[in-house]
Structure formats: structure tokens, C-alpha cells
Design a protein that fits this description.
It contains eight helices and eight strands. The chain is of the alpha/beta class. The protein has an eight-stranded mixed β-sheet with strand order 1-2-4-3-5-6-7-8, with helices on both faces. The termini are far apart.
């Protein structure tokens, strides 16, 4: 593991193969990566980056993650979206962008990568604030999402507001707290949207200083109690950034969690 786990955020990686637009704004785009090998078409993986929804963080810091997922044989789309600090970012632009991207990208990717994208809803991989957006998309458009790997997600916006994560990040996203805009929190807070029907795996490091692991424990417990297909993988020696670093010691556990989104479903189909 690198001496500074944040090194992954600026690590050089191969450029994407193509970029497609799902809207008219310059940030309503996604970078596509062709899957490794010449295997059969597989479902699209949509990577939703974190950065507490702020403009200073973009999709570039998920380049190593996207390259590694493409090496597993899946076409990958790194989605960009309008963020707080930008015109149109925050409420409602940020969540609306991601929801639009999730529903449009399978068609766009299939057209740009002929023969490489299998039919069916995409798998979402979201980290931190991107985990929030992936969970929101899955809850809001269940037919459009085939499964979610949520890596240290901000899964309870009301709690994140009370904890003042990243110095007011949730207030910047939604324009205030739950008492100011209860309807906004009700619409986009994953904690209020359980159960999520898509198979969901939440992975969280016990050493995380950016998003507390207790948030994931409570979210997964609530989801299971409501009948959701959700489980939590706790990594006792991992912090926040190792989850998106293919060079980290926990990467085999990340790939195992990712594969379980499909393997368990396939096994269930075969038993039927």
C-alpha cells in the first residue's frame, strides 16, 4: 500500500478510449474504457466518483479504479456530473445528472463500443459521495440499475449534515439542513429510501476518517430490516482511499465484492 493513501487520487493512468455526452453541459459526459481481452459482451460498469460533490474533484481521480475494472473484462464508464461550486451543480442538478447518466449510458456505450456491452442494466460502483449518488440512482430508478457496489458511501445525508462532514458538504449540496429542506432530504437521502431493490454490497474501512463506518453499519442494518438485498463488508485495516486503489492490500476484497453482484445473482438464476 502506498505511504500516503491519497496518492491514488493523482496517480497517472492510461487515457480513456472514448468520451460520450449524455447532456449539453460540458460536465455531462462519461469516459469509456474498452474491456480487456476478446471475451463476450458484458454489462456496463458505471463508476461514480466522490469528492463530497465539490467542483474541485472530478472523475480523473478514479482513473486507476476504472482501468482495473476494465481489466476484469467489463466495459467501464466514468461518469462526470455538475458539482457544487459550478453553475447548475448542487440541488437538483447533481443528483439529476447522475440519474440521467445511469439511464442513458448503457445505450450510449453500446453504440460507441459495438459488440462489447451486453444488454441489461449497468452495475454501479460509487465511492464516498459517489456512493451516495449510486445508491440514490438505484433507489429512484430501480429498473435501470443491475447492482451497486458502494465504497464508503455517504449513505445518510441527515447524519452527514449533523456531523458536518467535509465542512458543510451536505449543506452545499442541498442548500441547508434537514429542517430547511426536508423534501430534498426525503428525495435523495439513501437512509430515507430503503429498501433498495438492486443487489447492493457496501464496503467500508474501519479506519475511515472521512466517512464513519458506523454510517454504513446503520444503513445496511436498516436495509436488511426492510427486506433489501444488501450486505456489508468491513475491512478492519483500511481507510477511505484504499477502496479505490488497485495497488492497495484490500483490492482482492473489492474485486470479490464486485463479482458477488453478478455471481450470486447468476447462481440464483441457475437454481431456479
Amino acid at each position: 500500500m502506498p505511504a500516503d493513501p491519497r496518492d491514488v487520487l493523482t496517480r497517472p493512468a492510461p487515457a480513456p478510449d472514448l468520451t460520450v455526452s449524455y447532456g449539453d453541459h460540458p460536465d455531462q459526459v462519461a469516459d469509456l474504457r474498452i474491456p480487456a481481452g476478446a471475451g463476450p459482451a458484458r454489462r456496463l460498469v458505471v463508476v461514480v466518483h466522490g469528492g463530497f460533490w465539490r467542483a474541485e474533484y472530478d472523475r480523473r481521480h478514479t482513473d486507476p479504479l476504472a482501468v482495473a475494472l476494465a481489466a476484469l473484462g467489463h466495459p467501464v464508464a466514468q461518469v462526470e456530473y455538475r458539482r457544487t461550486g459550478q453553475p447548475g451543480g448542487g440541488w437538483p442538478g447533481t443528483p439529476t445528472d447522475v440519474l440521467t447518466a445511469v439511464t442513458e449510458l448503457p445505450r450510449l456505450a453500446a453504440g460507441a463500443l459495438p459488440g462489447r456491452v451486453a444488454a441489461g442494466p449497468p452495475l454501479l460502483v460509487g465511492h464516498s459521495a459517489g456512493g451516495h449518488l449510486a445508491l440514490y440512482a438505484a433507489a429512484t430508478a430501480p429498473a435501470a440499475v443491475g447492482g451497486v457496489l458502494a465504497l464508503a458511501p455517504v449513505s445518510d445525508l441527515a447524519q452527514a449534515y449533523r456531523l458536518d462532514l467535509d465542512e458543510g458538504a451536505v449543506a452545499a449540496l442541498l442548500g441547508g439542513g434537514p429542517a430547511d429542506h426536508p423534501e430534498r432530504y426525503a428525495a435523495v437521502d439513501p437512509r430515507s429510501l430503503v429498501p433498495i431493490s438492486a443487489r447492493t454490497v457496501v464496503v467500508h474501512g474501519a479506519l475511515d476518517q472521512q466517512v464513519p463506518i458506523g454510517m454504513s453499519r446503520e444503513f445496511v442494518a436498516a436495509g436488511r430490516a426492510a427486506g433489501g438485498d444488501i450486505r456489508l463488508v468491513e475491512l478492519p485495516k483500511c481507510e477511505h482511499y484504499g477502496l479505490i486503489d488497485p495497488d492497495s492490500a484490500v483490492w482482492p476484497q473489492i474485486t470479490a465484492a464486485f463479482r458477488s453482484l453478478q455471481d450470486d445473482r447468476q447462481a440464483l438464476t441457475q437454481r431456479r
